Amino acid sequence: MSRLVLFNKPFGVLSQFTDGDGHPGLKHHIPLKGVYPAGRLDHDSEGLLLLTDDGDLNQRIANPRHKLEKIYYAQVERIPDEAALEQLRRGVMLNDGPTLPAGARLVEAPEWLWQREPPIRYRAAIPTAWLELRIREGRNRQVRRMTAAAGFPTLRLVRYRIGEWSLDGLEPGQWQCLKLAALGSVSPQPPKRGRF
Q1: What predicted TM-score, i.e. pTM, was given to this entire model?
Q2: What does the alpha-carbon distance between residue 107 and residue 22 come to, in Å, rounded to a whole number?
Q3: Cα–Cα distance between 101 and 86 in angstroms, integer?
Q4: Which run of H or of E encompasses 160?
Q5: Which of 3, 71, 152, 189 has the largest count of CB atoms under 10 Å?
Q6: How far apart are CA 64 and CA 76, in angstroms?
Q7: Which among 168, 163, 174, 154 is positioned nearest to 135, based on CA atoms?
Q8: Residue 131's beta-bridge partner residues?
Q9: Catalytic positions, please?
Q10: Contact, 114 vs 172, CB < 8 A?
């Protein structure tokens, strides 16, 4: 039986078990052995990180050719207009080539969102807005680069969903282990609170 761990990665934590560059690794939160991250989430991003002990499932989640949809919430500088949203929807040119078209819309700050420590910088003269972005790629710092290319730098980034799995019910630092008999067959265990 395979294991799939859903982890709500706090800001500042690396997507690896070892510490590095002054940032704590996953070992401070997840005491399980033999599970490995399926993809990554940068230390300055928060939210859903999946880990598994199943190599095939890891490939299904992490390999861009499977085009598994990911949903992000990005707090950006200034308020994007419809032209900027359309640019994100069509795909933007990055230094490593054009992105695939994305879902992009302005939203209110999510009600379920926790306070970040440390909080984002506040500037009274520059308003901020929240975007919901849906992408099917997974390039390095892709969402941040996309919003910057459209003229709206990301201040805070939270990944909410990967495919069928989401953050629902997980506070920052909490994780949940699902046992999978086969892909798509899931038996949940209650969330656990990690140390931070």
Answers
A1: 0.90
A2: 34
A3: 10
A4: strand 154-162
A5: 152
A6: 25
A7: 163
A8: 74, 106
A9: 42
A10: yes
